[in-house]
Prior knowledge:
The chain is an alpha/beta fold. The protein has 9 helices and 8 strands. The protein has helices at 13-18, 30-38, 71-82, 100-108, 120-132, 163-166, 168-177, 190-208, 241-251; strands at residues 20-24, 43-47, 87-91, 112-115, 137-142, 148-154, 229-233, 263-267. An 8-stranded mixed β-sheet has the order 3-2-1-4-5-6-7-8, with helices on both faces. Helix 3 links the parallel strand 2 (43-47) and strand 3. Mean pLDDT is 90; it is low at 253-258.
Amino acid sequence: MISFERISSAIDLTLMKQSSILIVGTGGSFSLADALVRCGAQNIVAVDPDNVDCTNLCRQGYYPGNVGSSKVEALHSHLLSLNPDISFTGFKEKIQDLPESQLTSIFRNADLALILTDSFDAQAFCNKYVTKYRVPAVFAGYYEKSRACEIFFFIPGITPACFRCAVSPRYSAQQNAGNEILVSSNENTMFHSLFLDSVIGMLSLAILHNHTRGFTFSNWFGNYYEYNFIQIQVHPDLIVPELKSFFDRKLGLSNILHIPFIHSVHQRIEAEIPPKYDLCPDCKGLGAGII
């Protein structure tokens, strides 16, 4: 049985026990789900259509005995071994294929949605629901060859823009591409997964605790926070010229003050509204959307 005595001043354990966390994409987020349960989370909803295969073992936390099983079933079994009191609901379908009634229930009841799939279609689909039902959310993943990663988060009423506002050029590129754009997870080691999961996990605790007082993760973002798009360089050589230029421009000479390859940039994201932008069809320029 887990004892939370050593972290009880950092985390509101009652809050964690009562919160429902939705995870879309359980591959690289295996260790994140593990850590959230170790931080007191007891209500997990997970969605992933994939089965565990041998290539997942070196980078996603699954075990040889999980090969052939669905990822959500393997995750459920693992989390139960940590805490038999958890409530876990798993869906072995694509999030886009769930019936509307199920989607409404999932998103309306979520206190935090973690959108961690490498499918852009799934990311775009989820943004419509988290904005519609005003669910705090984190979207995260690695770029090509895992040289850098991004984390976007929003908190209804506090951050001014939604995921679509932050990456609207990506929507246009996807529309023009025809086939779905997928980023390869090659060269993404277990350390990459653990690194990103740790950052997402800290942000997740801060989002859940934003209106609490007296805990380590309390009130990080206050009543307004607009620098909610984080990009982190984790390799000295960025193979995408535009991305390398971006980091060089943002960091400048400050490189000498940092580890040579780990840099983070927090971008200010504004809601897309006329006349500067076309109106965001997901959040209508309000960040969290309209129910």
